[in-house]
Amino acid sequence: MTQLGTTLDTDNLLVVREDHKETGVVTLTLNQPKQFNTLSVKVLSVMQIELDNIAQDNTIRVVVIQATGKAFCAGHNLKQMRAHDDEAFHRALFQQCSQMMLTINQMPQVVIAKVQGIATAAGCQLVAACDLAVAADNAKFATSGINVGLFCSTPAVAVSRNLPQKQAFEMLITGEFIDAHTALQYGLINRVAPVDQLDQALQSLISAITAKSSVAVRTGKDMFYKQLGMTLEDAYDYASDVMTCNMMAGDVGEGIDAFIEKRRAVWKGC
Fold it and tell me: What pTM does this model have?
């Protein structure tokens, strides 16, 4: 294992990159268990720098976001928020957090949340913002800002794009926890596993992604999010253009030939 990133702050975030070029997996670990891995200004800043660096590295294919301790992420640091009573600080904080969430969607790599404990408020937003999520069967999720008089407006953006409307609104308006199996049913996460099998469930998902052409995966992630905001007609027009361009990639020819010849494709990433 080698560390990635020159701006690493190990008091807040651990960044580990696998040495194997064939897998290209980077793990970001929230590492403030006593603070329940809250998203302080400092943590958001380090996270943003690392995500920006990763997004520029074509050898990285998958990013895993995980955490140490009992909590995956308890959202924003409430003590830090209460220490500032000026509107400018809070506006900057929420914009900083929103930009980090947007980066996860916009970067070419597939980002997977590995949830080992509770994920509340902006922590639940982080799970929803990731492309995929696996969770331990004892994990719990909530958008709990409403309990302190603050509607989780920014988490609502990601959560409402993952869950059916009524289920999303119930979470946001009640602040009540849902368990991992309910989160799976609602569509917030992809897979649930016993705690001692969480790594295995994660690796299964990573292997399924990295076995595919990197061109197809990067093209697919970009296309998927862009078409969500389009009308049905515009989405089909856009999808046709993307698929046409994708067909010109060398990997597609190799993939089709391999399928016809009943052999394993050798991806070249072009």
Answer: 0.92
